[in-house]
Amino acid sequence: MITEAATWPVPGIGWVDHVGTDAIRALEELVLGWFPAEASEPVEEESMADDLADVPEALAAFHRLARVRPVLHRFHDPVLEQPRRATGPLGDRLVFAMWNGASMDWSIPWPLEGPSAADPRVWHTEDPDGSDPETSLEEEPLSRFLLQFTLFGAMNAAPYQAWSYCMPTERLDTLWDMLRPVPLNPFMPTYTAEKFFVAPGLLAQISSDETEAVVAFAALKRELLTPLGAHGFRWRRFDGEA
After folding, report:
1. Which helix (H) or strand (E) covers residue 64, if one does?
2. Are residues 128 and 200 in the same domain?
3. What DSSP string describes 86-101?
4. Do the Cβ atoms of 214 and 207 come closer than 8 Å?
5. Given 3-state DSSP classes, what are the helix, strand and coil percentages for the chain, each rounded to the nearest 5?
6. Cβ count near 64 (within 10 Å)
7. How confident is the model at residue 102 (pLDDT cuts 50, 70, 90)?
8. Burial, 215: exposed, middle or buried (Cβ in 10 Å; 0-12, 13-18, 19+)?
9. Per-residue pLDDT at 227 exceeds 60
10. DSSP state letter for 113
11. Which structural domain, as residue segments, surrounds residue 196?
C-alpha cells in the first residue's frame, strides 16, 4: 500500500506522450512522478550492472527504477527482484512476475533469440506448477507490458480508490472529457481486458463491452476522487469525500 504524501505534487500525465515511441521512458516518467522517493540501501553500480547484464533493456530499466522507488517490489502482484528460469509448454523461459493469490506468472523466452530479443513477447502461464500448465501470449511486448503491469500495480496500491458496480456502457460518456487514454492494448485480455486512462493525479481502468462496463479509479490524494461523485455511478467503494 502506498501512503498519502501530503506534500507530493499532483502527478502529471505527460508520460503518456511517450508510450507509442519510447515505452521505457514512459514507464520511468510514470514511476518517478507517481511514487514519492523513499530511503533505500545504496547499491554499487558495478553490482547492479552485473545483475542486469543479460536481461532485455526494458526489464533492466524496471529494476533500476525499483532501486530508487522500492515500492515497485512491494506490489501485491510483483515483478520479481530475481527472475527465475523455468520450463513450460512453449519451451524454456525466464519468469519475471507473479500473480499472488492466483497461480499465474509472466515470462519471456529464454535464452533470447531472433529479431524480437531486444523487446520479446511475454508469455502468461496459468497453473505453472501444475501438471498441465496453460500458456498464452500477451498482446504487448515486454516494454509495454511492464508499463501495463505497473499501472495495474499502482492502482491496487493507491491509498484512495473508487470502484463502480457494473453499469450500461453509455454511462461512461460523461468521463471522456476528463480522461486521456493510455495507448496500450487491453491488459489481461483473457480475463477483464482492462484499458487504462489517466487524468492529473488519477489513474483509471475500464473493463467494458458494447453493453456493460465497470470503472475503477485510484489517487494519492483523497480530494482528487471527490468530483467523481457527481457522475452518479453506484460505487462498491468510494474513498472520495462525501
Report:
1. helix 57-68
2. no
3. EEETTEEEEEEEEETT
4. yes
5. 30, 30, 40
6. 15
7. low
8. buried
9. yes
10. -
11. 158-238
